[in-house]
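[step 3/7] fold_predict: job queued, chain A
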Amino acid sequence: MLKFLNPYFLPLLIIIFIMIFFYIKKDKLSGSSISFSNFISTPPRSFKNSFYHILFFLKILAFICLIISISRPVLITKYAPEIIEEKKQKEGIDIIFCMDISSSMKAMDFKPNRLEKSKIISNDFIKNRVNDRIGIVVYAGESFALCPLTTDYSVLNSYMSKLGESSQYNLEDGTSIGLGIATSILRLQKSDAKSKIIILLTDGMNNDALDNVDPITASLIAKENNIKIYTIGVGSMGTAPYPMQDVFGREVIENIEVEIDEDLLQNIAKETKARYFRATDGEKLLEIYNEIENLEKSKIEEVVYTYKKDDDIEDIYIIFSIISVASLFLYLFIKHTYLRTIF
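[step 4/7] structure written:
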């Protein structure tokens, strides 16, 4: 099948018909005519006219082939389409960050404080994931889903970077670990992923004033839904500097006791066949995230069907280019040498 890659040049062929029209008109006015007899007649005048007709023919041929050449003609040989099945392995899991945003996360044993450092390291963790869907749940005395499961990591990073403490969202202050887990489970329950995990980060004791959800009960529900809960206790040993206000409203730094219910966090992780970690500083928290990253990798087999339709394409513009150039050279040769020699 013949096809032109630059067909918008083809309308220039109209110029050929205009050139032929005016040539015939001029030839009639001069008293000669374009006919086969011009080429076989013996009188010199007719013989000369025949050469002029040949020159005109060569000029037209060169112009036609030039237009066809720049229109990029190609010959296409079609073959039957083929569907190729290809199996690919990729890694991907569903992850919920369950972040404690209670006021105690302002403690400054992490630089600049626990919450800000946790956000920075969590963002680094997100950047290293490739095929995972990740979401964010926040909790204090209450809980809600800040970001649903998504693979749009730029959106995740934006949410994580803007994350603030409980007062920013008008949440009751406190540490309702069970409610945070329950909200995270709701985001993962309908997931079809082979591996589902919650990364629970907290710096305190479970002190749910509203007595919403028992953390152990929540972990058992997670277990029933094949969800692992990796728990991370954030905070230095002993005491930690904490920003407070004096009677004049000025900010002062005081040391407060660090209280983390490690037994509870260990039991939550154990119930769901996961692990508990203690992060006493930013570097330790980074190591924990790296360890979780290495622990949680599930291979997913993906079958990709590719519609392959290879056609042989032969570019033939060069043929018309050669004919055009050859016709032009022959035209010039006859006009300036042979024709001039005879006449």
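[step 5/7] annotate
Confidence is low (pLDDT under 50) at residues 34-45.
The longest strand covers residues 82-91.
exit 0
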